[in-house]
Amino acid sequence: MKGLRILQGFVLLCILMIPVLIIVFLKTMSTNSYDIPIYYEAGVDNPFLECDFEDGKQHRIPEFRFTSHLNQEIGSLEMKGKVTIVDFFFTSCPSICPVMSTEMERVDDVFRQNDDVQIYSISIDPEYDTPEILQSYADLHRATPGKWHFLTGDKSEIYDLARCGFILPTIDGEGVPDDFVHSDKFVLVDEEGRIRGYYSGTNREEVDRLIVETKILLYGKE
Fold this sequence. Notes:
Helix content is 37%, strand content 18%. By secondary structure, it is of the alpha+beta class. It has one domain: Glutaredoxin.
């Protein structure tokens, strides 16, 4: 009988310890277990010959200023202190842009109430994509005013920014929609102007990962 009581007591102790062990496990696993990389900490290996990168220094998004679909001047200055998600597109794109913009709608919706997150969609066909055209496109995708900005500006500045700022391949189609070449990537940029991630804007799982990692950056600011 005595041995049975000892066994029963041991079983009871094990049962009581289970919640404690679960709490310890969760705390251990949730502490700094998800690190988001910082890209180009030692500079960029110059994939585009026209870019002038600083050797051995953290790459940051350079200064730029474009015109939004609401005719506002917006650029790198407004990125300071915020998490910014950027993509390059054009409204007459016959291939990947509609999918990218539909996926960006989801991102916009998730962070609609969060003033620390914004979106820049930058046109690589600025001669066609006037603020008026971009306004219609923004309306089509139910873009949140003041959060999701569609930008246009000087073509050479836009292409320099894509290649040398965001390190994305971009080729001018000279007005022919099928001849334009641009990346499908959404780029996550932190409040210091550092690139923290690239995600395929045509892949739902990749966009889900972007949303998660954006939230992690936000929590890191708190």
